[in-house]
Amino acid sequence: MIRVALVTGGSRGIGAACCRLLAASGHAVVVNYAGNEAAAQAVVAGIAGAGGTAVAVRGDVSVEADVLRMFEAADRLGRLVALVNNAGVVDLPARVDEMSVERLTRMFSINITGSFLPAREAIRRMSTKHGGQGGGIVNLSSAAATLGAPGQYVDYAASKGAIDSFTIGLAREVAAEGIRVNAVRPGVIDTDIHASGGWPDRVAQVRDSLPMKREGTAEEVAQAITWLLSDAASYVTGAILNVSGGRG
Ligand code: NAP
User: Which fold has domain 3-243?
Assistant: First the structure.
């Protein structure tokens, strides 16, 4: 049976690096994306060019019907064994007393609900309780979960704090059902997220303050994620791994 991995937000950044590594380790990959079809198709083409299998599926992780469609695409490819809950957003730097309810709702819907819904669908397929054969889930937290990001985006930090609690609770909930659930906490990583959040110079501005005096790459984070999903991490569950170059 073909082993399938689903990566939310797989079109760019850390998610795209995960798609490439999971394909290289023999998975057929569902590359979910929100709107950037060209980026998603480029990831799919790169995997196909290297002899792998991938499909791009548009969908918003916070919309239940979209999440169901992503998993139906996975079911058509083979047996789901891995989920990377990677899609996430930040917003403009702001204090809490400046944040609109629209901002908060979007942040928590995408970053929190948008991780719960894919996890629910993955468990329905992987859990031995539901007739499945097990699998792995990795959630994307952030160093911000422990730093709090005051004056920048406490809402984002809190959404990642929720991901930490989600990871610990879910890991224990399904540990006896063949599913391992872990998280990574990236530090400052060179991706588009800083520009998308309205702070394009962030990496250059904070670089000198980082313990290793450099930002991380998407591939460095993806290497940790794919290790957590692999059999080499067979006794690791409920873990939250800092991939932050010593920050946080
Ligand atoms: P990125 O480069 O901005 O890419 C974001 C990805 O998520 C894109 O593929 C985007 O799709 C997708 N996406 C956004 N909203 C979505 C939605 N509602 N539904 C489905 N997909 C959606 O981000 P990144 O830096 O790689 O970050 C990936 C994860 O790591 C996030 O959870 C982020 O919070 C976390 N993280 C990042 C850093 C960092 O410094 N980069 C640090 C700590 C944690 P489109 O291409 O279609 O827009």
Answer: Rossmann fold (3.40.50)
Q: Which residue reads 């059999």 in tokens? A: 231
User: Which atom of ligand 1 is the closest one to the Cα of 111?
Assistant: 32
| DSSP state at residue 8 | T
What pLDDT score was predicted for residue 238? 99
C-beta 140 within 6 A of ligand 1: yes
Ligand 1 pocket member 188 (CB < 6 A): yes
Encode pLDDT of 133-180 as tens digits. Answer: 999 999 999 999 999 999 999 999 999 999 999 999 999 999 999 999
Q: Whose CA is nearest to atom 8 of ligand 1?
A: 9
> Is the CB of residue 13 below 6 angstroms from any atom belonging to ligand 1?
yes
pLDDT grade for 63, boundaries at 50, 70 and 90? very high
User: Is the CB of residue 50 less than 8 Å from the CB of residue 23?
Assistant: yes
pTM: 0.99
Q: Dihedral sign, CA of 206, 209, 214, 215?
A: negative
DSSP 238: S
- Please indicate whether residue 235 is annotated as part of the active site: no
Nearest-CA residue for atom 12 of ligand 1? 9
6 lines ligand 1 (CB under 6 A): no
Task: Evaluate if residue 105 carries a pLDDT over 90.
Answer: yes
Residue 248 pLDDT: 83
**What does the domain layout of the chain look like in residue ranges?**
3-243
Percent of the chain surpassing pLDDT 90:
98
The set of residues, in sequence order, having a beta carbon less than 8 Å from that of 62 and lying 6+ positions away, is: 109, 110, 113, 114, 117
